[in-house]
Amino acid sequence: MATFLYQLSRAAFRRRRLVAMIWLALLACAAVGASMASSNVTSSFSLPGTEAQKAAGLVETRFPGSSPEGAVAQIVLKAPAPGKVSDPVRKATVKDLVEDLRSTSDQVATVTDPYAAGSVSPNGSTTFVSVTYDKPPGSLSEATLQSLDDVASGARTSGLTAEVGGTALQAAPEPGIGEVIGVVIAAVVLVITLGSLVAAGLPLLTAIFGVGIGIATIAALASTFDLGSTTSTLAMMIGLAVGIDYALFIVSRYRAELAEGHDREEAVGRAVGTAGSAVVFAGLTVVIALVGLAVANVPMLTKMGFAAAGTVVIAVLIALTAIPALLGFVNRRVSPRTPGRTAQKPNGGVRWARFVLRRPAAVLTVGLLGLGVIAIPAASLQVGLPDDGSQPVSTTQRKAYDLLSEGFGPGYNGPLVVVVDGGRDTAAATRATLQDMDGVASVSPATVNKAGDTAMITVVPQDRPSSVGTERLVHSIRDTTSDHVLVTGTTAMNVDFSQRMNDALVPYLTLVVGLAFLLLMLVFRSVLVPLKAALGFLLSVAAALGAVVAVFQWGWLGSLFGVEQTGPIMSMMPIFMVGVVFGLAMDYEVFLVSRMRESYVAGDRPGTAVVTGFQHGARVVTAAAVIMIAVFSGFVGSSEPMIKMIGFGLAVAVFIDAFVVRMAVVPAVLALLGHKAWWLPRWLDRLLPDVDVEGEKLRARLRPVSEGVSPEEPDEKRQLSRV
Q1: Can you tell me whether residue 419 is helix, strand or coil?
Q2: More confident of the two residues 132 and 563
Q3: E strands, 404-554, where?
Q4: 356 pLDDT exceeds 90?
């Protein structure tokens, strides 16, 4: 591995113009593909094998056209007290509003008259107008959205309270000031770490370049593969973070090689041959974690994982080829200021490592206790999917949600659709059963299809859609009624999604941790080091989930992070955090411990190897962690609840894993284990292929002839010479 990367990077350095042209051509092709792609991108949601999905398919077959695929808007109207929306003047205003909606946009498919549909609250104060469009959410024109806003404004002028909700207002999250601040902080950290504007600019430039290729490719394939807007946001979040980290690791090692007196091309080859090997395996762990999300059998989550994994692959390839090419263009402007002295000067990493080696048991105890305390809230984790009730209170969607709750009851925002695979008699019996169940606010009359063999019944729960009470009601209906009665609708789909995520968590953990364990055994030639890495990751995830529960479910410090509505944690959050955090945690493990392994293989004692690893790797890992935290924290300012929660969770997880687990727990455990940390049974050592991540064979091959051994001499003589 190290020898191949050494040769590859030197070739990229020598043919830097060709390499740069290839990457620019890839970006241009991706950009052209994105510009030519259809703008009508759907974001369908399906759960193969679940009851809700089966019922939805039955409705589509037996009631064709009853489930519109286009965006839906609801204009919720409330009359000022003590008036009613059925008063003649206000009724005329609402009817005019309905006609305006039908004529103001050619994307409108249907508009429902609320009086004909009986959509008036029991107290007569509130009603709503439903509008269905012929375009999917996120594809409505600006003119259509503006006409919707104009109609609502006209209703307000007439004295009604008017707010708009529904999927029509869904749009791709736009980059905000938080993301920009995150990138600026990353740039500052790079300048401080590398001490050069040019050296700092390389990781930032290549990361943005790689993310540009990834996002443009996702946009080009969005229509073909049904990729939602969240897919590109998450790919950008992860791709930017790992792209900066991988490039930083290569550039830092290059500067260290220059400090040893090597010429530029040789320094590039040695840097990529050693640090590049760690980048490859770190990237592989992230890819394994993201692709492994397919275990959940949720198409949306699978696509998100593959898209994000693609951006990670691009980041790795750029670090191995584009970085060496760019280093050829910048001459010595990335060189360290004090060549030859960098490696000898003790730094903060060395002082910290020596402190941990003196008190390993105390450091380990404090670290574990602290993580355990932070993880306590995770024991009360409740999962669900966010709805408009989790939007900021200042948004029209949240106001529309609250108006419906006040006028019709909390459950009206998420009614259940009960599908009866039978005739009228069966439907009537089912309806009677539903009316007597706890947690039911109202049950509509059964709607029977033309063939008379299927019926739909709408059940309005007493509680809000994301509540535990509504989830219990869904399970109660399924347990009480017969097999020919199915429950679907958005709320039931969310319940099934949460259950699917819970069921997939253990198999996913087993698969990802198992594969990564084998991969790390190849890297470190050890059994206990990969085991320690996996256990440390579990501590990081548990503590990060505890912090997420405390802020987003319990509301602790919620106002500080813009959390205006507490509730269940997003269903995919635990499994998504497991995947992403595991990949990122293994990054730090490989970056830091690979230098320890390199030192140990060279003949140093275990304690000396730990100090050496921190001397060369602590500064880079610290900078990489701060950069990742800054990038992820930038997404906490998003108005999209899911993006906000993921950004917060990943930022906390990186902080915990980098500064507590990898910087404290890991060296403490290695200090206590000593030589045993690097133990590998001889029979297993013979079975595992030697991938030479530390570059031992490469260094032996490149050792100067003046040391008494030529590159052509056999391995045995080199080993004797080194001893």
Answers
A1: strand
A2: 132
A3: 416-420, 440-443, 447-448, 455-461, 485-488
A4: yes
Q: Is the peptide bond before 82 cis (omega within 30 degrees of 0)?
A: yes
Residue whose pair of structure tokens reads 């709503």 in the numeric block: 128
Instruction: Give the span between the Cα atoms of 684 and 688, in whole angstroms.
Output: 6
pLDDT, residue 706, reads: 39
Q: How far is residue 10's CA from residue 275's CA, in Å, rounded to a whole number?
A: 14
The predicted model gives 336-348 an average pLDDT of 58
Report d(CA 169, CA 145) in Å as an integer. 8
Residue carrying structure tokens 């807007």? 229
Contact residues for 257 (Cβ-Cβ < 8 A; gap 6+): 266, 267, 268, 270, 271
Nearest 5 degrees, angle CA 371-CA 376-CA 380? 145
Where do the structural domains in the chain lie, given as residue ranges?
Answer: 1-36+184-345, 72-169, 346-414+489-692, 695-723
Query: What confidence category does residue 42 fall into, taking pLDDT thresholds of 50, 70 and 90?
Result: low
Q: Read off the tokens for 239.
A: 């791709």
Give residue 704's Cα distance to chain centre.
Answer: 47
> How many Cβ atoms sit within 10 Å of the Cβ of residue 102?
13
Whether residue 462 contacts residue 469, with contact meaning beta carbons closer than 8 Å, is answered with yes
Q: What is the pTM of this model?
A: 0.79
- Count of other CB atoms within 10 angstroms of residue 184: 13
418-430 burial code (b ≥16 CB/10 A, e <16): bbbbbeeebbeeb
Strand partners, 161: 78
Q: What are 439-479's pLDDT values in tens digits? A: 999 999 999 998 889 999 999 999 988 888 899 999 999 98
1-36+184-345 and 346-414+489-692 agree in CATH topology:
yes
Q: Is 1-36+184-345 assigned to CATH 1.10.20.10? A: no
pLDDT per residue as tens digits for the range 237-249 = 788 878 888 988 8
Question: What confidence category does residue 721 fall into, taking pLDDT thresholds of 50, 70 and 90?
Answer: very low
Q: Tell me the range of 34-38, 45-49, 415-419, 602-606 where mean pLDDT is highest.
A: 415-419
Per CATH, which fold does 72-169 belong to? Alpha-Beta Plaits (3.30.70)
pLDDT higher than threshold 70 for residue 175: no
Average pLDDT score over residue span 540-551: 93
> d(Cα 459, Cα 533) in Å, to the nearest integer?
49
Locus of tokens 């304690």 = 607
Tokens of residue 369, six digits: 């206790």
Cβ atoms of residues 52 and 45 within 8 Å? no
Average pLDDT of the chain to the nearest whole number: 84
Strand 383-384 to 569-570 pairing: parallel
The CATH fold assigned to 346-414+489-692 is: Multidrug efflux transporter AcrB transmembrane fold (1.20.1640)
Which amino acid belongs to residue 353?
A
CA distance 593 to 278: 10
How confident is the model at residue 621, as a pLDDT? 85
Nearest to 573 by CA among 625, 514, 637, 643: 643
Kindly report the backbone phi and psi dihedral angles of residue 560, in degrees, each rounded to the nearest multiple of 5, phi listed first.
Answer: -65, -30
